[in-house]
Amino acid sequence: MKVRIHVSLKPGVLDPQGRAVHHALEGMGFAGIADVRVGRLIELNVADDTSDEALDGMCRRLLANMVIENYRIEKPAALAGATG
Amino acid sequence: MRLAVITFPGSNCDRDLAVALEKVSGTPPIRVWHGDADLPDRLDLVALPGGFSYGDYLRSGAMAANSPIMRGVKAAAERGVPVLGVCNGFQVLTEAGLLPGALMRNAGQTFICRTVPLKVENSQSLFTAGYATGQVIRIPVAHHDGNYFADEATLDRLEGEGRVAFRYEQTCNGSRRDIAGILNEAGNVLGMMPHPERAIEADHGGTDGRALFESALRGLVGV
Q1: Strands (E), B8-69
Q2: Distance of CA B188 to CAs A11, B57, B78, B124, B173, Å?
Q3: What angle do CA B138, B144, B150 make, to 5 degrees?
Q4: pLDDT band at B106 (very low <50, low <70, confident <90, very high)
Q5: Is the pLDDT confidence value at A78 over 70?
Q6: CB contact under 8 A, B105 and A16
């Protein structure tokens, strides 16, 4: 099954990359942008019986740095719904 | 004296670090590959060099922190063996959980490569005993991800316990409280973004880094 891991900076952690992108968008003339945060999307193709616990372990031990980042696991049901 | 320098794929300051350790100790360090299952036994010091391990993929130091050799490095650190992480080595130590916090992209987004003044905040540790508290030394930095982050409680604890080893004299990369280097709770693990191994002889343009290696080695032989 395909699983998507969304990794984002925790609220309150300054995002220099997001700030630079925000600045660039405003420089291009796009108005009304309150904030920009840049994250990371990781797609895994894993065995169907992969447990939530195992996925959590992957996120906590490598894919996200829990000091500065949060993660969200998107499972197949949600993905199937998204792709119709 | 048994010293070790770890090399990860993408390390590029491992030789510099080995040369610095050899110049000061008179003994060439054992070069250890990241894929080795164990560290050599009876080590007196382990050093993790700068560079771009695994191309900084995912996060700087994240992959290297899970290398086979890091189990041995963690065990050695817990036994009290001195561990020094410079630049990417510091990033690896935070990712491995041997030091608190994280090193993020520099606030200004740019790679910073220049010699900076550092204030020695703690001169009581094995690595910093060759300096005086409050002394300002000049050491080169060369990094893209040196912006030290930890939550306020962790920062307060680091300051309260005297675990901030070095601080940038002038704001450098956006680091919280201008922190350039920190110690673990026991004081045997030091991580720092600046490169002391690049300031050990006059030809380097400065020798302020030499005292760090000298004091560590003096401490090891118990003089």
Answers
A1: 30-33, 45-48
A2: 33, 28, 9, 11, 26
A3: 85
A4: very high
A5: no
A6: yes
Closest residue by Cα to residue B5 from B52, B40, B42, B37: B40
User: Across the A/B interface, how many CB contacts are shorter than 8 Å?
Assistant: 37
pLDDT tens sequence across B158-200:
999 999 999 999 999 999 999 999 999 999 999 999 999 999 9
CA angle, B50 as apex, B169 and B82 as ends, to 5°?
85
Q: pTM value?
A: 0.93
Q: What is the DSSP letter of A16?
A: H
Q: Which residue has the higher pLDDT, A83 or B205?
A: B205
- ipTM score assigned to the predicted complex: 0.84
Best of B93, B104, B152, B157 to disrupt the A interface (most A CBs within 10 Å) is: B104
Tokens for B38? 């164990």
| Residue B125 structure tokens | 């540790």
Residues of B within 8 A of A17 (CB-CB) are 105, 109
Kindly state the DSSP code that residue B198 receives in the 8-state scheme.
G
The CA–CA distances, whole Å, from B85 to A50, B7, B113, B172, B215 equal 36, 12, 18, 19, 16
Torsion of CA B25, B30, B33, B38, to 10 degrees: -110
Determine the pLDDT at residue A84. Answer: 43
Using one digit for the tens of pLDDT, what is the confidence trace for A39-56?
999 999 999 999 999 999
| Cβ-based neighbours of B62, under 8 Å, separated by 6 or more | A62, A65, B54, B95
Specify the DSSP element, H or E, that contains B102: strand B102-104
